[in-house]
Amino acid sequence: RSELAPLFAELSSRELEILKEVAKGGRNREIGEKLFISEKTVKDHISNILMELQVNDRTEAAMLAVKQGLV
After folding, report:
1. What digits encode the pLDDT tens for the residues 29-51?
2. Residue 5's pLDDT is what?
3. Using CA atoms, how far apart are residues 49 and 55, in angstroms rounded to an integer?
4. Residues 3, 37: Cα–Cα separation, whole Å
5. At what angle do helices 39-53 and 58-67 cross, to 10 degrees?
6. Sign of the CA dihedral 5, 60, 56, 14?
7. Rounded distance, CA 19 to CA 63, Å?
8. Of 40, 5, 46, 7, nearest to 23 (Cα)?
9. Residue 28 CB: number of other CB atoms within 10 A?
């Protein structure tokens, strides 16, 4: 975790997994199926990610992840 940008330090490992999948273009249902969690759980994690990264939507979060080298 120490090699991650400080911006991502507050994200849990599950949130990081989900953010990576969002950045790859995954949809909530697809992410849920891949990670064996419900679509609602994915939505909840994404809401937390947006709040913690202080971005407005999943596109901004994905762009940030790519820009910071997370994906």
Report:
1. 999 999 999 999 999 999 999 99
2. 76
3. 9
4. 27
5. 70
6. negative
7. 10
8. 46
9. 19
Mean pLDDT of the chain: 93
Lookup result for tokens 């762009």: 63
- Mean pLDDT, residues 17-38 taken together: 97
Q: Which residue has the higher pLDDT, 2 or 25?
A: 25
Q: Is 31 left (phi over 0), alpha (psi -120 to 50) or beta?
A: alpha
- Give the separation between CA 61 and CA 71, rounded to whole angstroms: 12
Does position 1 have pLDDT exceeding 50, yes or no? no
Q: Is the pLDDT of residue 3 over 70?
A: no
- What is the C-alpha separation between 14 and 5, in angstroms, rounded? 16
Distances (CA, A) of 11 to 14, 43: 8, 15
CA dist 51 and 18 (Å) reads 14
